[in-house]
Design a protein that fits this description.
With 360 residues, the protein is of the alpha/beta class. The protein has helices spanning 14-32, 45-51, 57-64, 92-102, 126-129, 169-184, 200-213, 226-235, 247-261, 299-311, 316-331, 349-359; strands at 2-10, 35-40, 68-73, 107-113, 134-140, 150-155, 158-163, 189-194, 220-225, 242-245, 268-272, 278-282, 334-335, 345-346. It contains twelve helices and 14 strands. The structure holds nicotinamide-adenine-dinucleotide.
Length: 360
């Protein structure tokens, strides 16, 4: 099989880490009998430098014509980069918001997985960590409080600000289905997180998620209030498989979940639409402080590429092989600087990519 991939190297460490992900994908293709045709697309500062805007219509068209998009990271140092002298709609981040909107990416997936080899970076106690944890946060990305109407007014000398939180049942249903689909590829459990004891939007959320659950009798559903979930994430993270939640709750919980794994260079993410299509990128930024120095950890991008194989291309076996290769390299003691500890073998970006590609 042959697939079309739009590649967005982006800025800072982006090109370096995407190069290593491509190396690993091509190794997986050789082993599992598929090929990937890459078309490079400029976005963020790289696009501003060439086209004067952070994302062109042509770039969007290339992404739309692809089976999936693999991205590094965009943006520069806001204090020193000329990109941040531009008006907000022309800055690097505007490109990311635009592509999410154009591609209708309403579901954000962020895994929080603890590698036993990196246990030392986890801020939780050993008895809480146990054999480690492996969860996926599925966050609604285009609705809710962040997209509702808002206003700030002054009445009788008192300033008053209002934000609105709206969800319709179709928005809830489509993300719930995505959540259950993902759970089917994992340990078949969904924890739907809401604040149904207070919010109407959460009561609708809960009702629609229950309707969707009827179509997935093989998946277990539980409901949890968001305040309890925030607590359970640090009390007993092992209990979670897929956490399904709305935009703001997901924003907060996904950061909390990723922090308990301890290492930013390891965290992948995906944003999906209603079809198999998705945009895959590391959770971290473009790290301009270490760009071009062969210091960046490419693993988050390589794991994002594995998610792309699994969720957009249905190449589950190849995805598993990439994840196993990452584990193997960590087990053999290889580390980039950000995850290095005493007694390990320190390697750069390129060598880390090669070591993983060789073990796929
Ligand atoms: P950052 O994630 O780029 O860096 C934070 C710290 O983590 C830095 O010390 C950096 O060196 C380190 N780090 C990050 N990724 C690493 C990796 N793979 N290997 C080793 N070390 C790594 O966050 P920031 O400094 O706040 O942001 C830098 C730029 O990235 C900004 O322009 C910001 O807007 C942008 N950004 C982009 C995205 C995106 O493209 N989705 C996300 C977040 C931030």
């Amino acid at each position: 099989m042959n697939y079309r991939i739009a590649l967005i190297p982006g800025d800072g460490i982006g090109p370096e880490i995407v190069r290593e992900a491509v190396k690993v994908l091509d190794a997986a293709g050789k082993k599992y009998g598929f090929t990937l045709d890459y078309t490079e697309v400029l976005m963020g500062g790289a696009s501003i430098d060439v086209h004067g805007v952070p994302l062109t219509e042509e770039a969007v068209a290339v992404a739309k014509a692809s089976d999936a998009v693999l991205m590094g990271s965009i943006g520069g140092d806001a204090a020193t980069s000329p990109w941040y002298q531009l008006e907000p709609s022309k800055r690097p981040e505007a490109g990311l918001l635009k592509i999410r909107k154009e591609l209708n990416l309403f579901a954000n997936l962020r895994p929080a997985y603890l590698y036993s080899e990196l246990k030392a970076a986890c801020p939780l106690r050993d008895d809480i960590i146990g054999d480690g944890f492996d969860m996926m946060i599925m966050r609604e990305l285009t609705g809710g409080l962040y997209f509702g109407t808002r206003s700030t007014v002054e009445q009788d000398g008192v300033r008053k600000a209002t934000d609105t939180l709206t969800y319709d049942e179709n928005e809830i249903r489509r993300i719930a289905k995505r959540g259950f689909d993902i759970a089917r590829k994992r340990r078949k459990k969904v924890t739907s997180v809401d604040k149904a004891n207070v919010l109407d939007s959460s009561r609708l959320w809960r009702a629609v998620v229950e309707e969707v659950a009827k179509e997935y009798p093989d998946v277990t559903l539980e409901h949890m209030l968001v305040d309890n979930c925030a607590m359970q994430l640090v009390r007993d993270p092992k209990q979670f498989d897929v956490i399904l939640t709305e935009n703001m709750f997901g924003d907060i919980l996904s950061d909390e979940a990723s922090m308990v794994t301890g290492s930013i260079g390891m965290l992948s993410s995906a944003s999906l639409n209603e079809t198999k299509f998705g945009l895959y990128e590391p959770s971290h930024g473009s790290a301009p402080d270490i760009a071009g120095k062969d210091l960046a950890n490419p693993i988050a991008t390589i794991l994002s590429a594995a998610m792309m194989l699994r969720f957009s291309l249905d190449l589950d076996e190849a995805a598993g092989a990439v994840e196993a290769a990452v584990k193997q390299v960590l087990k053999e003691g290889y580390r980039t600087g950000d995850i290095y500890s005493e007694g390990c073998k320190k390697v750069g970006t390129v060598q880390m990519g090669s070591l993983i590609a060789e073990r796929v």
